[in-house]
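FW: tagging you since you asked about this chain on Friday. Here's the raw sequence from the shared folder, copied in full. Didn't touch anything.
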Amino acid sequence: MDDQWTRRSILKLMGVGGVVAASALAGCAERRAARPRSGPALRRDFFFMQLTDTHWGYRGAANPEAESTLARAVAVVNAAEVKPDFIVFTGDLTQTTDDARERRARMAQFKEIVAGLDVKAVHFLPGEHDAAPDRGEAYREAFGETRYAFDHEGVHFVALDNVSLPGGALGDAQLDWLAADVARLAPDTPLVVLAHRPLFDLYPEWEWATRDGARAIEILARHPSTTVFYGHIHQEHHAVTGGIAHHAARSLVFPLPPPGGAPKRAPLPWDPASPDHGLGVRAVKTGATGPSITEIPLRARA
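HL: got it, structure written out here
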């Protein structure tokens, strides 16, 4: 594990000892910088980390180190001298199983490992591997509600569940809840949406979409300062729908091909010579001019 690299990257992200090494999210920083805020101002700059698609319980050739990858990610975060305000896991915490007892055991094991994170708060949301087999019953027992909202330093966060219902839908009740939640925000309040699947139709043939995601995007489009972070596709990806920027993060188990880049959706082969195996975490800094991101590869073991 490259601890020096970890410290250097995090410090650069926070703008300590050099220029911030991150790129502005498309359509967000420019728009926010162009006009003064009339809503609640950010109380201070902060950063959080996104981890996704850990698939705890996976065993297979696509990652022969799967039993240690999650613990290594915890160690990377804990090695940083600058700690994130919080961490969010955007779904597929565990590998799917039809055995309800094993599903709960994997969730308990996952929770035990991530309890070692040296951060003040950790937020979770489900992926289809966690919630689709039983509509989120075991997930709610282990982690609580599958949808929720919270505020942090003047930024409003919304976590959506687009995996528990058949076909990866949000459903009328959740869409009504989202509309009411967004409607109460001041126009200039930064809004960050967390989801597992993409809300837009990235590649429906591979189930890289949300069945009623267009309705969610229509609701979010009414709010001028919205950014979406998601997982599911096991790779970094950036897209814009209208004025909303959508960003997918790397997985912590194995990468998948780019949308439509292979005859079928299947893990990319494990490369023993790769320095990071296509795995990583993401840090997101939020400041007065909008959020910016840094992708942090998970280095191979020394």
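FW: The two ends are 6 Å apart (CA to CA).
HL: agreed, and The mean pLDDT is 86.
FW: great, closing this out.
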